[in-house]
Amino acid sequence: MKPYEILLKGNKVWAGNKLIEDPDYFDRLSQLQTPEFLWIGCSDSRVPANEITGTQPGEIFVHRNVANLVVNTDVNLLAVLDYAVTHLKVKHVIICGHYGCGGIKAAATKTDFKPVLNMWLRNIKDVIRHHIEELTNIEDEEQRSDRLVELNVQEQVYNLAKTTIIQRCWKEEQRPDLHGWVYGLKDGIIKPVFEMKAGTQIDALYEYDNL
Ligand SMILES: [Zn+2]
Which helix (H) or strand (E) holds 194? Predict the structure, then answer.
């Protein structure tokens, strides 16, 4: 059996088991999705949103990219955010990074990863620049990288709050709350590191007053 055929076989077993547990499972899920959460996580294969939060299909709307970035010119992310916030009306947006993130480590080096990856990782280099003093004071390389993971999550939460999508929804509906979390690959535990409740005052520079 070819490796990808194992996936298709696994899918049949999974679907069969779901039907044994709950014969209406797929009928019900195919009718509608009303997730309460938008998850913006890292593409890393070891951080699957549903599995590590013990949730089921239908409970979390998911977007993933390298190092869980919120880039204000990323049409893909903004379309997901707009759909989740404006149409699905999620109550919480979660940015979930993870310790040991390869994207974060790569951005902290001087290696040329060639144009496309360089473009993406540049956003993380900017996070480093904003926090250069704190980071250079951490001598241990792993600890420094772990702190950068936390600071990156915090910056991405700020980036969410800078969008008109979030600001308009905060003004009109007092939601969603924004959460910055970090998942530990070594223990499987998620650590909340930052939070912005709906309506939190942000830097006036980024505020829109004619929403
Ligand atoms: Zn990662």
Answer: strand 190-196
Q: Which residues are catalytic?
A: 42, 44, 46, 98, 101
Tens digit of pLDDT for each residue in 71-94?
999 999 999 999 999 999 999 999
| Entry pTM | 0.96
Q: Please give the distance, rounded to the nearest whole angstrom, from the Cα atom of residue 208 to the centre of ligand 1.
A: 32
d(CA 5, CA 62): 25
User: What was the pLDDT predicted at 32?
Assistant: 83
The answer to whether 72 touches 160, Cβ cutoff 8 Å, is: no
Position 82 scores a pLDDT of 98
| C-alpha neighbours within 13 Å on the C-beta side of residue 7 | 2
Name residues of the chain where pLDDT drops below 50. none
Residue type, 120: W
Which residue carries 């509608």 as its tokens? Answer: 32
Q: 14 alpha carbon to ligand 1 midpoint, in Å?
A: 27
CA 66–ligand 1 middle distance (angstroms): 6
Strands 177-183 and 190-196, sheet pairing: antiparallel
CA separation (Å) from 114 to 73, 75, 127?
A: 20, 22, 20
Give the distance (Å) from ligand 1 centre to CA of residue 43.
Answer: 6
> What is the model's pLDDT at position 33?
85
